[in-house]
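Reviewers asked in the last cycle whether our approach scales beyond single polypeptides. To address this, we selected a multi-component target totalling 107 residues and predicted its structure end to end. The input consisted of the following lines:
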Amino acid sequence: MPIVTYILRDGDRREIEVPAGTSVMEAAIHGNVRGIDAECGGCLSCATCHVYIDASSTADLPLPDDSELELLDGVAAERRPESRLSCQLVMMAAMEGLVVRIPPTQG
Ligand code: FES
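The resulting structure, written as structure tokens, was:
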């Protein structure tokens, strides 16, 4: 099963197995990863699942769609080129090696 690495605000790393079809946000919630609140439950309206894709990540990610890009405009933390909403990252084989970083204002 693919593993996603979450780098927390304090630099701690959590590695969680994420089954195909499960979002990076859902896995974080079930794994009690601090800093991903997902207040809307993944319906693309809160942006509290914001993450940065770490430079060490080797995952091949699908591009964000227009709805995700629009919501990323309103994230609380700095928006960066590597910003993504973790509820929109649904695990598939090409995403093996994904490393995400929790923004410093979350958690
Ligand atoms: S969980 Fe609300 S936008 Fe991702």
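The mean pLDDT is 96. We regard this as preliminary and will revisit it once experimental data from Aim 1 are available.
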